[in-house]
Amino acid sequence: MDSSFDTPALARWGQEPAASGTTCHYEVRFVSLFNGGRGVSFPCDAQGCVAMEHMTERARQNYQRVRSLVGTEYAAPAVQLSDLH
Predict the structure, then answer these.
(1) pLDDT by residue (tens digit) across 3-60?
(2) Domain boundaries, the chain
(3) What's the CA gap between 15 and 53, in Å, rounded?
(4) Nearest one of 45, 41, 51 to 4, comparing CA atoms
(5) Cα–Cα distance between 1 and 19 in angstroms, integer?
(6) Coil, strand, or helix at residue 68?
(7) Are 43 and 14 in contact (CB under 8 A)?
(8) How far apart, in whole angstroms, are the C-alpha atoms of residue 63 and residue 40?
(9) Can you tell me the distance from the alpha carbon of 67 to that of 7, in angstroms, rounded to the nearest whole number?
(10) pLDDT band at residue 66, thresholds of 50, 70 and 90?
(11) Dihedrals φ, ψ of 4, to 5°?
Protein backbone atom coordinates (compact mmCIF):
# COMPACT_ATOMS: atom_id res chain seq x y z
CA MET A 1 0.00 0.00 0.00
CA ASP A 2 1.29 3.37 -0.96
CA SER A 3 0.75 6.20 1.51
CA SER A 4 1.56 9.00 -0.94
CA PHE A 5 -0.99 10.73 -3.15
CA ASP A 6 -0.93 13.27 -5.93
CA THR A 7 -3.07 16.40 -5.53
CA PRO A 8 -6.17 15.09 -7.38
CA ALA A 9 -6.18 11.93 -5.25
CA LEU A 10 -6.07 14.00 -2.05
CA ALA A 11 -9.26 15.73 -3.11
CA ARG A 12 -11.10 12.40 -3.25
CA TRP A 13 -9.30 10.60 -0.42
CA GLY A 14 -11.54 7.87 0.95
CA GLN A 15 -14.32 8.62 -1.51
CA GLU A 16 -15.23 7.24 -4.90
CA PRO A 17 -18.42 8.10 -6.79
CA ALA A 18 -20.91 5.25 -6.95
CA ALA A 19 -23.08 4.49 -9.95
CA SER A 20 -26.16 5.88 -8.19
CA GLY A 21 -24.49 9.25 -7.62
CA THR A 22 -23.80 8.60 -3.93
CA THR A 23 -20.34 8.53 -2.41
CA CYS A 24 -18.68 5.34 -1.22
CA HIS A 25 -16.22 5.31 1.66
CA TYR A 26 -13.57 2.63 2.01
CA GLU A 27 -11.49 1.20 4.79
CA VAL A 28 -8.53 -1.14 4.90
CA ARG A 29 -9.23 -3.80 7.53
CA PHE A 30 -6.75 -6.00 9.38
CA VAL A 31 -8.44 -8.99 11.07
CA SER A 32 -6.85 -10.63 14.12
CA LEU A 33 -5.46 -14.13 13.49
CA PHE A 34 -6.20 -15.18 17.08
CA ASN A 35 -9.44 -13.44 18.00
CA GLY A 36 -11.97 -14.01 15.20
CA GLY A 37 -14.25 -11.00 15.64
CA ARG A 38 -11.44 -8.54 16.33
CA GLY A 39 -9.73 -6.28 13.87
CA VAL A 40 -8.49 -2.80 13.13
CA SER A 41 -9.49 -0.58 10.21
CA PHE A 42 -8.27 2.68 8.73
CA PRO A 43 -9.88 4.98 6.11
CA CYS A 44 -8.45 4.52 2.63
CA ASP A 45 -9.27 4.97 -1.04
CA ALA A 46 -10.71 2.24 -3.27
CA GLN A 47 -7.20 0.86 -3.93
CA GLY A 48 -6.36 0.59 -0.21
CA CYS A 49 -4.06 3.62 -0.06
CA VAL A 50 -4.08 5.30 3.36
CA ALA A 51 -3.37 9.04 3.51
CA MET A 52 -1.07 9.02 6.51
CA GLU A 53 -0.55 12.78 6.30
CA HIS A 54 -4.23 13.19 7.31
CA MET A 55 -3.96 10.89 10.35
CA THR A 56 -3.26 11.87 13.93
CA GLU A 57 0.14 10.83 15.26
CA ARG A 58 -1.48 8.08 17.33
CA ALA A 59 -3.43 6.69 14.36
CA ARG A 60 -0.26 6.78 12.23
CA GLN A 61 1.66 4.83 14.88
CA ASN A 62 -1.17 2.30 15.20
CA TYR A 63 -1.31 1.84 11.43
CA GLN A 64 2.43 1.25 11.19
CA ARG A 65 2.36 -1.16 14.15
CA VAL A 66 -0.53 -3.18 12.70
CA ARG A 67 1.16 -3.37 9.28
CA SER A 68 4.33 -4.68 10.93
CA LEU A 69 2.30 -7.46 12.60
CA VAL A 70 0.68 -8.81 9.41
CA GLY A 71 1.32 -12.53 9.30
CA THR A 72 2.05 -12.85 13.01
CA GLU A 73 -0.99 -11.24 14.70
CA TYR A 74 -3.11 -9.92 11.81
CA ALA A 75 -4.22 -11.36 8.50
CA ALA A 76 -3.34 -9.62 5.23
CA PRO A 77 -5.40 -6.43 4.91
CA ALA A 78 -8.58 -6.25 2.86
CA VAL A 79 -10.21 -3.16 1.37
CA GLN A 80 -13.94 -2.97 1.96
CA LEU A 81 -16.76 -0.47 1.91
CA SER A 82 -17.01 1.35 5.20
CA ASP A 83 -20.26 1.18 7.12
CA LEU A 84 -19.40 4.01 9.51
CA HIS A 85 -21.63 6.63 7.89
Answers:
(1) 333 333 333 344 444 444 556 699 999 999 999 889 999 999 999 999 999 999 999 9
(2) 7-81
(3) 16
(4) 51
(5) 26
(6) helix
(7) yes
(8) 9
(9) 25
(10) very high
(11) -105, 145
